[in-house]
Specification:
Elements: H1 2-14
């Protein structure tokens, strides 16, 4: 019983020490350069 309680406490405290993660949906266009956007990261219309 003591071991299981200690394991639960260890798992709960272990989850608190993580670093935040930047969420980016796969359905959105990522920022930065791309195949059609060029080095500026935005669509450039050539004249």
């Amino acid at each position: 019983m003591k071991i299981s309680m200690m394991l639960v406490i260890l798992l709960l405290l272990g989850g608190c020490s993580g670093t935040p993660v930047q969420y980016h949906s796969e359905r959105e266009i990522p920022e930065g350069p791309g195949l059609l956007t060029g080095a500026d990261g935005a669509y450039q219309r050539h004249r």
